[in-house]
Amino acid sequence: MTAAGFRIGGDLEVRRLGFGAMRLPTEPASARATAVTVARRAVELGVTLIDTAHLYGGGANEELLAEALHPYPADLLITTKVGVARSGPSDEWRLDGRPDVLRDQVDHALRRLRVERLELLQLHRIDPGTPLADQVGTLRELRDEGKIGRIGLSEVTVAELDQAREIVEIASVQNRYSLLDREHEPVLAACEAAGIAFLPWRPVAWGEAGANAEINAVAADLDATPTQIALAWLLARSPVICPIPGTARLSHLEQNIAAADIKLTPPHRARLDRLAETP
Predict the structure, then answer these.
(1) For the NADP-dependent oxidoreductase domain, which residue ranges apply (predicted)?
(2) I want to staple 36 with a disulfide (CB 3.0 to 4.6 A). Which of 19, 68, 112, 265 is the partner?
(3) Higher local confidence (pLDDT), 211 or 242
């Protein structure tokens, strides 16, 4: 691993600052066209890690990325997530980790993304109604069948991560984490110890960073935005962290990517680190 890059699963190298595609709209047509432009611009700016999921429009987000970026550059990783499905009389989205559902969603993701193998496939959430061993075991089978290259988890505890690792190698964990939200610090520590990529979702805590006086002060010192400071802090926090900030606006995308060039001084780091001690 380097300051700029990380090898997911020990061999799949990506630039650490990625892009989350969840916010890209797929309709109406004018919004979709802008979303395609944003996705393409992300790759032009050097992004090599893009995150999507079956949940994002029931696969529509996956199709959008394929429309924008296929055929994919050799160094681009598009990772998707499965394990949430519409069910019940109201057709609501619910956690669903049954083996047949996971298999079906993987097959659809392969078709929508126009690939023969998903190099990184993540379990969106652990379904409490299905044994974890069945969920992770199904992904291991799909890996052995050649449909998945590496397996990741999302929103897990240290105990769940440990249990999953007894079944199969885990290449990534995607938990909520940011400068102002460090609830999953123990999971990050476990990932760092094991060399597992940690992909924080909601890495900027939406508008909260801009409302914090300490972050604003550091941003002013470094001629940056509060969002850029929040992202720069994540990159400095641990070498396994690969943030995936998302946006549907070109200006925000370019600002986010520029955060990779911001170097926090030790005093700035200490000032930001102390925010965790604030009640």
Answers:
(1) 16-276
(2) 68
(3) 242
Residues paired with residue 13 on neighbouring β-strands, in sequence order: 7
**Catalytic-residue membership of 177:** no
pTM score, whole prediction: 0.94
64-97 CB burial, b ≥16 within 10 A, e <16 = bbbebbeebeeebbbbbbbbbbeeeeeeeeebbb
pLDDT per residue as tens digits for the range 10-65: 999 999 999 999 999 999 999 999 999 999 999 999 999 999 999 999 999 999 99
| Share above pLDDT 70 across residues of the chain, in percent, rounded to a whole number | 94
Domains defined along the chain, listed by start: 5-274 (3.20.20.100)
Catalytic residue among 56, 177, 198, 233: 56
